[in-house]
Amino acid sequence: EPEVTQTPSHQVTQMGQEVILRCVPISNHLYFYWYRQILGQKVEFLVSFYNNEISEKSEIFDDQFSVERPDGSNFTLKIRSTKLEDSAMYFCASQRRGNEKLFFGSGTQLSVL
Amino acid sequence: DAKTTQPNSMESNEEEPVHLPCNHSTISGTDYIHWYRQLPSQGPEYVIHGLTSNVNNRMASLAIAEDRKSSTLILHRATLRDAAVYYCILIETSGSRLTFGEGTQLTVNP
Q1: Closest to B45 (Cβ–Cβ): which among A35, A98, A104?
Q2: Which residues, other chains included, contact B78 with Cβ-Cβ below 8 Å and sequence gap of 6+?
Q3: Cβ atoms of residues A89 and A105 within 8 Å
């Protein structure tokens, strides 16, 4: 079965630094998502992306966050100035059509020190 | 978002059927009912989805109430590998916001 790939699997950064989390969605998919999960808590929606623009974003996705699909294959999440509370597992997901199943990557564990 | 409600936890014995309920009384006509599960330290994994009719696949069955206000995920013979958190979520056809609830932690006893 095709897979969503995320890199790196672990990222450690200092508070205030910028991080970029990378995802390669499945090639013929049209809808892309970022979620995060703080340890022991539920999966939280961050942002959805379709047709090269953000479709919807949550309250968590403030001005410090941005997403980009720079080259038609990668889908990145940038956090401009990381905070301690950004420490979480970040999941990318993609979907071929809006009502079909989501494929999730295995996540990037972000630790902000 | 239409909200879903699931029990926090359920327990089953190995090789017995498991019925995981989900209430979604505010579901709209265009919402698809999706089920995902999350094993420890992994990303969510698709299990099954449907709109109105019951659905079967190699992993599970999905029974949808006639009024669509509730659904049940059925694992026909639970195995130890089925121990996970199971999420019922509603997905609009537009595919924008997808909200995970608290999910049901399924424990499978040997």
Answers
A1: A104
A2: B12, B13, B14, B15, B16, B17, B18, B106, B108
A3: no
Return the higher-pLDDT residue of B97 and B28.
B28
A60, two tokens: 């968590």
- For residues A75 and A21, what is the distance between their CA atoms, to the nearest angstrom? 9
DSSP secondary structure code for residue B5 in this structure: B
Residue A57 binned pLDDT confidence (cut-offs 50, 70, 90): very high
Interface mutation target, options B57, B98, B104, B105, chain A, most CBs of A under 10 Å: B98
In the numeric block, which tokens belong to residue B55? 């659905």
Structure tokens given for B41: 């330290």
Cis-peptide into A8, omega within 30 deg = yes
> Is residue B87 a contact partner of residue B20, using CB atoms and an 8 Å limit?
no
Tell me which residue has tokens 């630790």.
A111
Residue B94 pLDDT: 65
Tokens of B70: 């509730």
